[in-house]
Design brief:
By secondary structure, the chain is α+β, with helices and mostly antiparallel strands. The chain has one domain: Alpha-Beta Complex (Aspartate Aminotransferase, domain 1), CATH 3.90.1150.30. It is built from four helices and six strands; from the N terminus they run H-E-E-E-E-H-E-E-H-H. Strand 3 and strand 4 form a beta hairpin. The protein is globular and about 35 Å long. This is YjbR.
Amino acid sequence: MVTVADVRALALTLPRSTEHLIRDRVKFRVGAIVYVAFSRDETSMGFAYPREERDALVDAEPELFCRPGAADLRFNWACCRLDRLGHDRMTELVCEAWRMVVPKFLARQRLGA
């Protein structure tokens, strides 16, 4: 099981990443763009994810992933349940979400490829 503290420990090591408390929700962003956000009760995490790939992700692992609320379906966003998320998968999701919102040179510099 992953906690907000686990995500924070990773997210704050990523260049330009900052933590914010917005409407009682912990969010991580680069500039004005949010790439990870937690539910108020910290049981689920939303993260930047390609909209065109979201349905396949959710359909492949519905016990872990879910679609965002109706108002957020237009965004590049997906959600997961923290009680079913492992540390390695969290690292992958957070790093890929961060990669989506930073300049390409910075992502290459930090993560390669």
